[in-house]
Model the fold of this input.
Amino acid sequence: MLHATTSALKYCLALGSCAVAALCTLYVTRPTAQSNASPIYGVTIPAGYRDWKLIAVNQLKTDKVDQLRAQLGNEIAIKAFKERKIPFPDGTIIAALHWNRVPSEDNNKVLVDAFPGAQSFVVESAVNVQFMVKDSKKYAATGGWGFGDFKDGRPGDEALHKACFGCHVPAKAHDYVFAHYAPQP
Ligand code: HEC
Done:
């Protein structure tokens, strides 16, 4: 039974050789460590991103998807957005959180009297989360940005990540970032 990392490791250690154990440790731990990072860029999910501050929200609707999207930023990102600082400084991280959009009958019932015909929509299930990480040296070939796309905590494949930068080039004048800081309500 070698399905768990620890039991695989125990099996290796039982072989009684330090060299074998070391090799086994490499074999057992390497794929796990790699699978957390995005291909090409090696971007991992930054801790605490769900609590970052809001940059903006938008909606994406196609024949197939209907999503609500929030862009959040770490402290460096938020400061740069507020000061309209372009290019974004190293250490900037922008997170894009995507959810499926669904109508809310509960909300509609409450709203209908005050707002006849009201159609309220809410977020439902999570779709994915994307990150752009600024490191002008490490990611010099892609405008200084590293990209990562994750679904259920797992990064998407290489083909997906090959497409990121090219599609962000139209936003070059805003340092490859489409989002603008939403105005104060
Ligand atoms: C087909 C073009 C396209 C591709 C491919 C693409 N993006 Fe984007 N991306 C956009 C557009 C347009 C926006 C702004 C609209 C939106 O958020 O839906 C955006 C927004 C973002 C944002 C929010 C910051 C910003 O620029 O507004 C992040 C983060 C992001 N993308 C990451 C990624 C990652 C990671 C990949 C690759 C896995 C990727 N993108 C691939 C077009 C693309």
Remarks:
- Confidence is low (pLDDT under 50) at residues 1-33.
